[in-house]
C-alpha cells in the first residue's frame, strides 16, 4: 500500500514538474543558494531555533538583524556572535505589536542597506481545552504565533522585493499538519501560518518578483518553548497533569535546535515550499496524508487511557 502511494506521488510530482517546465523557469522564483553578504532578519532570536539560525547564517557569511522580546536572551545570542565576520544588529521587538515590527523592518534597511530574508520564528505555547481556555491566553498566543508572522511578512516584503532577491521563512509546526487535544489555540495559529504562507508563495510565483516563501514544520525541537509556555488547569479533564505537562511534553523533543536550523537553511537554499524538520515531522506528515481520520481516533484512545 505504501509503495502504491509513493508511485502515485511520483506520477503527480512528474506532472507538476512538467507543467512548471512548460510555464518556463521564470515561473518559479530562483533559490537563494548563497547566503554570503545577504541580510537576514530573525524574530525570536534570543533562544532556541532563532539563535541557532543566527549562528548558522553567520557561518555562511550572512549579516544579521536580530530581534526578541527577551533582551537578556538577545544579548546572549549577540555575545555568541562576537568574532563572526558579519554585521549584527539587535533590537527588542514584540512581534504582536504591528507598529513595532514595521518600525524594526525600516530600521533594518537603514542599518544594513537592504533585507533579503525574514525568518518569522518567534512563538509561544499554550495548553488548554477549548472550553476552559481563557480568552486572554488565546489572544496572547494568536497575537504572537499568527499575527506576529503576518506583521513580519508584510513589514519586510516590500524590502525583500526592493533587494531583488528575497525569501520569507515562516515557522508553522507539525501542529499545523494535525490537530491534538489541549492544543486548539496552537493548532489554530499554526494551521493559519501554513495557509497564509502557502497562499503567499503562490502569489510570489505568479508575480515573478524575485522573492519566495517557505513554510517550516518542526517536530519536537529541543528548545524552551514548552517550558516557557502557559498551561491552563483545564487540561486535567483530558488526563494531563497541569503541574508536569510541560516537562512531559519536552520528553518528545528529539531534534536539536542546531539540526533544525541546518534543515531549514537547506530547504531555503532549495527553494522548498514546505520544510519538515525532524524524523517525527516526516512521520506525522505521512500519517496526516494517509490516515487523516484514523490518527484522531488513535489520539483519543491514548488520551482516554490517562483519564
Main features:
307 residues; alpha/beta; Rossmann fold; 7-stranded parallel sheet; two-stranded parallel sheet; 11 strands; 50% helix; globular; disordered N terminus
**Domain unit count:** 1
CATH topology: Rossmann fold
Unreliable stretches covering 5 or more consecutive residues: 1-27
CATH superfamily: NAD(P)-binding Rossmann-like Domain
Question: Care to give the gist of this entry?
Answer:
This protein is α/β, with parallel strands linked by helices.
What would your notes on this structure say?
- This protein has 307 residues and is of the alpha/beta class.
- It has one domain (35-305): Rossmann fold.
- It has helices at residues 2-23, 48-59, 71-80, 98-112, 135-145, 147-163, 184-207, 245-250, 257-269, 279-290, 294-305; strands spanning 39-42, 63-68, 88-92, 117-120, 126-127, 166-171, 211-218, 221-222, 230-231, 255-256, 274-277.
- The protein has a 7-stranded parallel sheet, sandwiched between helices. Strands 5-9 form a two-stranded parallel sheet. Strands 8-10 form a two-stranded parallel sheet.
- α2 packs across α9, α4 runs parallel beside α6 and α5 (135-145) packs parallel to α7.
Amino acid at each position: 500500500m505504501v509503495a502504491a502511494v509513493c508511485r502515485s506521488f511520483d506520477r503527480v510530482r512528474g506532472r507538476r514538474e512538467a507543467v512548471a517546465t512548460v510555464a518556463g523557469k521564470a515561473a518559479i522564483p530562483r533559490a537563494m543558494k548563497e547566503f554570503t553578504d545577504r541580510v537576514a532578519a530573525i524574530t525570536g532570536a534570543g533562544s532556541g531555533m532563532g539563535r541557532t539560525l543566527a549562528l548558522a547564517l553567520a557561518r555562511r557569511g550572512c549579516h544579521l538583524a536580530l530581534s526578541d522580546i527577551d533582551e537578556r536572551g538577545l544579548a546572549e545570542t549577540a555575545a555568541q556572535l562576537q568574532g563572526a565576520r558579519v554585521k549584527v544588529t539587535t533590537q527588542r521587538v514584540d512581534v504582536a505589536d504591528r507598529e513595532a515590527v514595521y518600525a524594526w523592518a525600516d530600521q533594518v534597511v537603514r542599518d544594513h542597506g537592504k533585507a533579503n530574508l525574514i525568518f518569522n520564528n518567534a512563538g509561544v505555547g499554550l495548553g488548554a481545552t477549548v472550553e476552559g481556555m481563557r480568552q486572554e491566553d488565546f489572544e496572547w498566543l494568536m497575537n504572537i504565533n499568527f499575527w506576529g508572522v503576518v506583521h513580519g511578512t508584510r513589514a519586510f516584503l516590500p524590502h525583500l522585493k526592493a533587494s531583488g532577491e528575497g525569501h520569507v521563512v515562516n515557522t508553522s509546526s507539525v501542529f499545523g499538519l494535525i490537530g491534538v487535544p489541549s492544543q486548539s489555540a496552537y493548532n489554530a495559529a499554526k494551521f493559519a501560518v501554513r495557509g497564509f504562507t502557502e497562499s503567499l508563495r503562490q502569489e510570489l510565483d505568479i508575480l515573478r518578483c524575485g522573492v519566495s516563501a517557505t513554510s517550516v514544520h518542526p517536530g519536537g525541537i529541543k528548545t524552551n518553548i514548552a517550558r516557557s509556555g502557559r498551561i491552563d488547569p483545564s487540561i486535567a479533564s483530558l488526563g494531563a497533569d497541569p503541574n508536569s505537562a510541560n516537562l512531559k511534553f519536552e520528553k518528545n523533543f528529539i531534534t536539536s535546535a542546531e539540526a533544525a536550523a541546518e534543515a531549514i537553511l537547506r530547504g531555503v537554499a532549495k527553494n522548498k515550499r514546505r520544510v519538515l524538520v525532524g524524523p517525527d515531522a516526516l512521520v506525522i506528515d505521512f500519517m496526516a496524508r494517509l490516515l487523516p481520520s484514523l490518527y484522531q481516533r488513535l489520539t483519543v484512545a491514548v488520551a482516554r487511557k490517562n483519564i
